Amino acid sequence: MAVTQGWQYKVIQVKTDMWGRDNPDALQTALNEAGRSGWELVSTMHAYGARFTVLYFKRPT
């Protein structure tokens, strides 16, 4: 019988600037911190009206 891989998921919201543009330094910091903890980025979403970018991560359990 095959063993099924389990996953944990993490969502991080990174604030954009006052014009709704991404903040590259804040994004890089969030990505590096998550990566050091074993999280792998799987998707992003830019929420223009809410003024943040959402980063979606996963890692094996």
Please explain how this structure is put together.
The chain has 61 residues and is α+β, with helices and mostly antiparallel strands. The protein has one domain (7-60). The chain contains 1 helix and 3 strands; from the N terminus they run E-H-E-E. The chain has a 3-stranded antiparallel sheet with strand order 1-3-2, covered by helices on one side. The mean pLDDT is 91.
* Relative strand content: 35-45%
Shape: elongated
Radius of gyration: 14 Å
Going across the major beta sheet, what is the strand order?
Answer: 1-3-2
| Largest beta-sheet characterization | 3 strands, antiparallel
Work out the helicity level. Answer: 10-25%
Q: Which secondary-structure class do the elements indicate?
A: alpha+beta
Count of separate structural domains: 1
Output the keywords:
61 residues, alpha+beta, 21% helix, 43% strand
Short summary of the structure?
The chain is of the alpha+beta class and 61 residues long.
